[in-house]
Structures are given as structure tokens and as C-alpha cells.
Amino acid sequence: MPTNRTVNARGKRLAITALMLALAAGVAGCGTSRMTTGSIGRSGGKPLESMSAGEVHNATAALGQSYAKNPNDKRIATNFAAALQMDGDADQSLAVMRKLAIAYPKDRDVLAAYGKALAANGQFDAALDAVRRAQTPEYPDWKLVSAEAAILDQLGQKDDARQLYRKALELKPNDPSVLSNLGMSYVLEGDLRTAETYMRSAAQQPNADSRVRQNLALVVGLQGRFDEAEKIASQELSPEQAQANVAYLRQMLAQQNAWGQLKDQDKSKPATN
């Protein structure tokens, strides 16, 4: 019978796999974000999360030129920061959002994006502060509620996070980004069946975006159903990108199994004095 420690360790391994799949974006072209979903900046009408690594890099350069001309334009700055994040430059992404937050200290959208940039850099306490400062208790913004929940999830406060996800769903029923984030909360815990239930509900919503469906492909793949995961991913990505992502996931899971077997063998060895 698995202990809580075993379940928690499994959840952490799954979370690492999810993160590593996101990091593979630069190789395979998948744009799954770190435990977050929702709208992301666009360049040339094509979503960043559907671009290849080369396309993201080119889009980042183009957005950088626009940003240099008008750094206080909220749309340009937030799109540039999102592109930088996907292009692997988290530090510069945060610098862009920090400057924008100084220019718009009371703008809820800017503070929310700033909070997400802080969280992406592992500065969770500061991220939580930014998101909470942006919130207006008497007129709560469901996006900020969901963002706060995602940060709490990364801090390991899953019960508080899920309470906030459900509050966000009360404010915005059946929103796919909130449902997907709630599903990712269960991925962090290692409860993939529950995660898939929320992910499927999210993907079935008429306004679900590419990243929501990619998260569904991820959680299906984490359960070893690779053919089904590739089929789901192929709806969003090119066949080559979908195959590359699933191949990367297979590799990550195989490495986890290998490490697990080595640990089990090590535990079975007799103790030596």
C-alpha cells in the first residue's frame, strides 16, 4: 500500500516530467506553459504556443523591435514578455513586466501578468503579493483568482489553491483555462485520473485554446497512452511536432522508471557495516 510519501514523490516526479516537457518546447515546438493556461500574446496572427522554436525566436525579435519603440504599450510589452518566456529568457521577460508594472501600478491586467512572470522565475511570494494587490475584493476578477490559485499550487498549498479555482469557476463557469489549471493541480499531486477529468472538460469547452488541449495530451501521455496523446497533440501541432513531443515524454517516463528501478535495487541490498 503506497504511503503519503510515495504518493507525494510520484506527484513530484510527474510535475518534473510536465515541466521538462514544457522545456522541450525549444526542441519539439510544444508551447505548454508551467502549470498555467489561458491567453498568450500573438504575433502575426499565429498563437505563440503553436510556433516552432525558430518561429518563436523570430517573433521575439520582431516584438523586441516594437517594444524598443514603445516600451510602455501594454499589449506590446506583455506580448514581448510572453515571447521572451517561451524563448527561454525568463530574466528579461520579468524585467519587461517589472518596468511595465512600475508604469501601470494599479492596472489589474499588468499586475496579473507581472505576477505570472514572477512565478515563472520562482519568486512565488512576490508573485502572490502582486496578484493580490491587483485584486479588488468587492469586485473580484476571476482571472486573478485563478492566477492566485496557480501560484498557491506551486507553493504546495493545494487545498487553498483548489478552493480558489472553484471560486474562479463560480465567477466564470466552465472556463477552460481554470478547469485546465485545476487539472494541473491534480497532476502535481499525482492523481492523473482526476486531472484528466478536468482536462477533458476544459478541452470540450467551445472557447478552449490550443494550450488547454496540449495539457490534455500531456496528462494522457503521462498515463502511458501515447498513441492517444499523439492524436490529441496532432490537432494542435504539426505531425512532426506531435511525434517529437510524445517521443520526449516517452523518454522522460522511461528515465523515471529506470531511476526508480535503481533505487529499488539499492534499497534491496543488504546493509554493510
TrEMBL record:
Signal peptide interval: 1-30
Keywords for the protein's UniProt record, in alphabetical order: Signal, TPR repeat
Coiled coil: none
Family matches, as PROSITE patterns: PROKAR_LIPOPROTEIN, TPR
TPR repeats, residue ranges: 142-175
The keyword Signal appears for this protein: yes
Domain of life: Bacteria
UniProt xrefs under InterPro entries: TPR-like_helical_dom_sf (IPR011990), TPR_rpt (IPR019734), UCP035836 (IPR014596)
Presence of the UniProt keyword Signal in the record: yes
PANTHER family: CELL DIVISION CYCLE 16,23,27 (PTHR12558), CELL DIVISION CYCLE PROTEIN 27 HOMOLOG (PTHR12558:SF13)
Protein known as: Tetratricopeptide repeat protein
Source species taxonomy: Bacteria, Pseudomonadati, Pseudomonadota, Alphaproteobacteria, Hyphomicrobiales
